What we know:
By secondary structure, the protein is α+β, with helices and mostly antiparallel strands. The protein has a domain at about 35-140: Conserved hypothetical protein from pyrococcus furiosus pfu- 392566-001, ParB domain (Alpha-Beta Complex). Helix content is about 25%, strand content about 15%. The protein is built from five helices and six strands, in the order E-E-H-E-H-H-E-E-H-E-H. It has a four-stranded mixed sheet. Strand 4 (about 95-100) and strand 5 form a beta hairpin.
Amino acid sequence: xxxxxxxxxxxxxxxxxxxxxxxxxxxxxxxxxxxxxxxxxxxxxxxxxxxxxxxxxxxxxxxxxxxxxxxxxxxxxxxxxxxxxxxxxxxxxxxxxxxxxxxxxxxxxxxxxxxxxxxxxxxxxxxxxxxxxxxxxxxxxxxxxxxxxxxxxxx
Length: 155
């Protein structure tokens, strides 16, 4: 579907940023070690998570529930502070997909909300590194991407 993961991390996006609730803005280079724009990140609906777990298992990768502190997660995309502030509880409670090396695969806004509330997040840990996890997610038939104008979570 996408070939962005074939490019070296540092060439994926030259810019980007995050406007925090405190009004600060960080350029893309301040996301370590890379920035991936939201339209290039996989989205998996909650009702498809069980199918994803089975799919990954047959690809040789386990996905299992885990709890993580937001301070242990790596954020790599722009986050809309208004979306985080206005997040409904049902969305906040959805699990966050995280790679074994701590990168948020799906759920940057939810992870940011957990960070702001200083609460651990319920996660589904994809037991492989970011690169392989991304390849598995994009190979999963029910994965989709948002276009750049979409700002709300699908329900």
